[in-house]
Amino acid sequence: MNKGFSFKRYFPILVWAPNYTNSKFFDDTIAALIVAIMLIPQALAYALLAGLPAETGLYASMVGLTVYALFGASNTLSVAPVAVISLMTATALAKLSLATPEETLAAALFLTFLSGLFLLLLGLLRLGFMANLLSQPVISAFVTASALIIGLSQMQHIFGVSANGQNFLGLLGSLFGQLGSINFVTFYIGAGSIGFIIFSKLVIKNMFLKIGVDAHIATTLSRSGPLLVALITGLLAYIFRLDQQGVQLLGEVPRGLPDFGLPGFSIDLLNSLIGSALLISIIGFVESISVAQTLAARRRERVDLNQELVGLGASNLATSFGGGFPVSGGFSRSVVNFEAGAATPAAGLFTAILIAVVALFFTPALFWLPRVSLAAIIIVAVYGLIDFSVLKKAWVYSKADFTAVLITLVLTLLIGVEVGIGSGVLASVLIHLYKTSQPHVAVIGRVTGTEHFRSVDRHTVETFENQLSIRIDESLYFANTRYLEELILNLISDKPKLEHVILMCTAVNKIDMSALETLEKINETLRELGVKLHLSEVKDPIIGKLAKTNFFKELTGNNYLSQNQAVEDLR
Amino acid sequence: MNKGFSFKRYFPILVWAPNYTNSKFFDDTIAALIVAIMLIPQALAYALLAGLPAETGLYASMVGLTVYALFGASNTLSVAPVAVISLMTATALAKLSLATPEETLAAALFLTFLSGLFLLLLGLLRLGFMANLLSQPVISAFVTASALIIGLSQMQHIFGVSANGQNFLGLLGSLFGQLGSINFVTFYIGAGSIGFIIFSKLVIKNMFLKIGVDAHIATTLSRSGPLLVALITGLLAYIFRLDQQGVQLLGEVPRGLPDFGLPGFSIDLLNSLIGSALLISIIGFVESISVAQTLAARRRERVDLNQELVGLGASNLATSFGGGFPVSGGFSRSVVNFEAGAATPAAGLFTAILIAVVALFFTPALFWLPRVSLAAIIIVAVYGLIDFSVLKKAWVYSKADFTAVLITLVLTLLIGVEVGIGSGVLASVLIHLYKTSQPHVAVIGRVTGTEHFRSVDRHTVETFENQLSIRIDESLYFANTRYLEELILNLISDKPKLEHVILMCTAVNKIDMSALETLEKINETLRELGVKLHLSEVKDPIIGKLAKTNFFKELTGNNYLSQNQAVEDLR
Questions:
Q1: Are residues B419 and B529 in the same domain?
Q2: What is the value of ipTM here, to two decimals?
Q3: What InterPro entries does the record point to (chains A, B) (predicted)?
Q4: For a designed S-S bond to A141, which of A304, A409, B199, B226 qualifies (C-beta 3.0 to 4.6 A apart)?
């Protein structure tokens, strides 16, 4: 990979813009339209989920999409508000217990700024590998638990009551306490909306295709369920004055484009939000890069991990200047963008323009949009994120992974998103260190008449009383080196005739400094007991590193090229 | 190893006591005498270092040694106050900003209780592997930095001034501010004491051996430097009333044995001390187990990691009931015990009895002990812990390890012991994950005319246009699985004629669930591109695990026993 500075790497637009064609323009425009239809109601809904005014969803979408089109690494990723990140934003803001909506918005902008800064720094420092700290089963569990919390948090709007809580049980308790005061008009609108969106997803496309409608148009229509729900319920609310029936409306949404400005800064805010910002950045990045890579691979394209960080970071920074909240590459929306034929990042730019048109001309109509319809849209959207199969799969495949998955799922539901994902990461790392803390090691002997060596436990092999041969099947590093030492000391304790210990290192890819010191210590201990330590079949790069130290000088035995040679030499 | 319950495992005394002999009694008594001579002044000095009354050092020693003799796993470990743990205790207590000595002592007892509880729980739950999270170079750096802080903290007593600070710079600044008010009588006693201890260590033994003194007695005399310094300077202080010259004396030390009682408990104290207790437990355990294992190996004995935790835990719990502070297996003291011929844990018991005799009958004499003499004893003791060679060695061997060592050293010196060791552990883990996040992977081809496969970059090999063979030289897990995916997607992006990807898995020892999901994703992505995914030379245990999932059912290609067979089959 190119490690030098490349201007084009940091500005992917310089690669695709010069080759832009009419046909690409047509594809991008169609994709932009379909995505906008899907995104507009989502953007409003996720803003409310984050605990912010509805218009911030529009601002975050148009700014995020525009800036990602300039810096982003993927041709099809749709960077705007997403459900899980919006929930995490709500959690981060709730911790601050701010008094006014203005303070809350200011904190949201600062959170977005920090999150953007982290992403940008990680990208510029080429630290994309940090995303690897999240194991995939842990992410699946986290997303499922978050979706459950989001779904439940929307039930208050379906019932027309008000509940609150950052975790599943809190929300459930709060909701149950309100069940006496259900507003049934609201409930019917909610149930009807959910039914209509599911129906349009499952049935409409095939219906239109059957009666000969063009595939593009049929797809567009099937994606328009949420928008149609918003239009129809808004119209109903306007005609029948449903607000007088107790149905909550979205209310005033300011007209126009966002004002740009730097987010306010305070040390207190920095201290309270830095952890949340870090989690939001990492989750947002991991989700985005997975989608981006999957989609790119389908077209044999590639996505630069670090440029993706730069793109996401720039989008979030810009969003924080443009009155929004954290944005990320949404899975279903990006898939829609991809399938609708988006050819270049310009598709995102065109989507942004369509949303700007809505913000400029159609906000008065949004006044009549029932809150419950947005809740219905969110519920259907997050339902698709719930996936318990990871639990069963982990149970069958690996109890260690199952433990990490269960910890993440349970703690996210019971305590909240930040503790949940934090514990999941910690559990993954600890479990991994635990698993590798007992490296696979076998006492080996020679299969008679051959030069092959196999475990004495599983094969009939010849061994010699004055030798002990041990094959190490793992790299040696600080977390497993002590085990090796203990094992060797145990093995030699009942072998009085032992003169030679041979470590066969075929599968040892790395020896870190802890392991080097342990080997030196083993060598020293064995020397005092009159036993020599030998190595065999050490890989070249490791020999190179060891040769820089005193190790071979101090080694009481030899470094053999082959295990068989060692055994022959020492018998 | 025996995994069932064994009464004798939890009570090692049941193993050694029935075989106790006169000769062992003689050996143990001699060793106990030599250790007691070394320990008595150290115990007083480390108590003051921890910020506690001098007698707590005697209590901690006698209780710790006695209980370890009953439960400990090592025959020669000497469990009593040690320098680094005493410093960590002082740091933990200083954070609480307590007003009175009584409150400080109560907090120290609770800290000891927590630390003992942790050790006991880790042992009973058989979680000894947790100690592996500390890499050896990081521990070396931490011990060196701690020794520097301890040494500097004692300089105030040498100069007869008072300075304070939890880290190197703080202490240094505080000390410089006081240099105007040096008490020269104190300073001469301090310098003389340091000189005498060093002289006795280096010269006396050989001198006595030369004039024909018995080796045991010569050793005892050479170890008695600190005790002699205490005796001589105490006598000088008494005769010349040095307190009237401004020399600080130890003062009243209560006579008698400790009162036993449960340490006081409060939630506030728990919250403030739990982190420190955890760090103290881990550092104490890691230090103890290293010494215990090294010494045991020299006699071809073994030490059970988890029983060692139980022994240390019980000692600390008992110490917290008996008015002491955290204890651990000291390195130099245990070596002395070993070299003096301690045959069983009874040696520790006898040392405890000797210390009890001092506490019962000789405390009035302690009144006249100059504080500066104890400082001199500490300074000589910790000087032996300072070892900068780890920096040079790490620099030569591995820049990654060097980074972790430097972080630990610098942060311990500049900020303090807790931040220092915490950052060291974190740095080790992150660096390890980073190093394994790019597994060694090679595109391979067949060495013509053989069945051997080698990297295409380093050897002249034959490859086929419709195949891509990749050898993976590392276990696959969450931190490196994404890299593999990216690599494969990159490699296939410019090979339009590709039909088969073969992953050669000779060196893959584990595939965790993240890696499994990545392999499934790669398989799916390749399927969409019309490319089949094959595996070759997968190890049996991994095949067994994969067979429990749908992986082989979904795999578009085959699982080949040998790489050559795969290549032949697919050309």
A1: no
A2: 0.73
A3: SLC26A/SulP_dom, SLC26A/SulP_fam, STAS_dom, STAS_dom_sf
A4: A409
